[in-house]
Amino acid sequence: MKRILLAALLALSTLSPAARPALAVQPDEVLPDPALENRARTISQELRCLVCQNQSIDDSNAPLARDLRLLVRDRLKAGDSDDKVMEYVTDRYGDYVLLRPPFKATTLVLWIGPFAVLLLGAAGTFLFLRGRRGVAAGADTAPLSADERRRLDALLRKDD
pTM for this one? Predict the structure, then answer.
């Protein structure tokens, strides 16, 4: 029995996201037309749950995600194209609702920000290590004064 369950889970994991059953989608949300339902699932995989933020609305159990899933299905039933549905949702919620926001001036920080942080971290690390190397190298080459040499000799003689 365990092998059958494991095989079923493995088979489900290899399906495309649109073909996988979404655990968050309630039975009363599913459209009777399989073609429309498949379109709704595909669109839902592209929209971010505004409550969970790292899940699509297809995967989220949040009430707002359910509302967005129903909104997508209503727009599809009204005859909107996939692009029109996406446009309708982004007009209401902004580009943040998209899991893959477009590259434009208002989303530049989302696209460039991680690289800028990485570059700043690398530059900071480089400068820190370069500064440490300079301090260590300077300590090795600076000669001791006559007073420091006498105190060091006195300390070394005490230990003998």
Answer: 0.57
Burial of 1 (0-12, 13-18, 19+ CB in 10 A): exposed
Closest CA to 98 of 53, 134, 128: 53
Per residue of the chain (160 residues), give pLDDT as tens: 667 755 666 665 555 444 444 567 777 778 888 898 899 999 999 999 888 878 899 888 889 989 999 999 999 999 999 999 999 999 998 888 888 888 888 878 878 888 999 999 999 999 998 887 765 555 556 788 899 889 988 988 876 5
Cα–Cα nearest to 71, from 92, 55, 95, 101: 92
In whole angstroms, what is the distance from residue 29 CA to residue 98 CA?
A: 21
CB 100 within 8 A of CB 46: yes
